[in-house]
C-alpha cells in the first residue's frame, strides 16, 4: 500500500533540507551573502513541485542581511536544484522558494511578553 502524498512530501522535504545543509557545510555556495546560514525546514507541496525553504543565520540579522541572504539563495537556486536532483535522484526536483524563518524571533517575542505579564502579576 502506498503512503499518503503528505508523508512523501514531508520525507522529500527533510531529504532536501539535509542535502541543502550538506552543500552549505561543504562550502559549495560561493556567494558571501549565504555565509553563516542555516536551513531550518523545507516544506514541499503535495505534488512535489514547489519546495519552500526556510532559512536564517546563526547570528542576529537585520532586514538588509535577511534580504541579501534570500537574494543570494535565489541566485544559486538553479545550481542547488541541479545538485540536489543529482543526489536525491528524484524524477523531478522541486522548484525552490527561499524565505526567512522568523519563528524563533516570534517565539522569543511571545516569551518576553509572557515574562512581562508574570512580572506584572508579581508586583
Describe the structure concisely:
By secondary structure, this protein is an alpha+beta fold.
Helicity, in percent? 40-55%
Subunit organisation of the chains: single chain
Uncertain regions spanning at least 5 consecutive residues? none
The span between the termini is 60 Å
| Fourth-tier CATH superfamily name | K homology (KH) domain
Average pLDDT reading = 88
Tell me the strand percentage band.
Answer: 15-25%
Number of domains: 1
Radius of gyration: 18 Å
Q: Quick one: biggest sheet?
A: 3 strands, mixed
Strand line-up in the sheet with most strands: 1-2-3
Which structural class do the helices and strands define? alpha+beta
CATH architecture: 2-Layer Sandwich
The total of beta strands comes to: 3
Instruction: Write the CATH fold name.
Output: GMP Synthetase, Chain A, domain 3
What top-tier CATH class fits best? Alpha Beta
* Shape, principal axes of CA atoms: globular
Q: Note the run of SSEs as H and E.
A: HEEHHEH
Description:
- With 123 residues, the chain is α+β, with helices and mostly antiparallel strands.
- It has a single domain (5-122), classed as K homology (KH) domain (GMP Synthetase, Chain A, domain 3).
- Helices cover 54% and strands 18% of the residues.
- The protein contains four helices and three strands, in the order αββααβα.
- The protein has helices at 5-25, 63-75, 77-88, 103-122, and strands spanning 37-44, 50-57, 95-100.
- Strands 1-2-3 form a three-stranded mixed β-sheet.
- The longest helix has 21 residues, at 5-25.
- The protein is globular.
- It starts with a helix and ends with a helix.
- The relative contact order is 0.16.
- The mean pLDDT is 88.
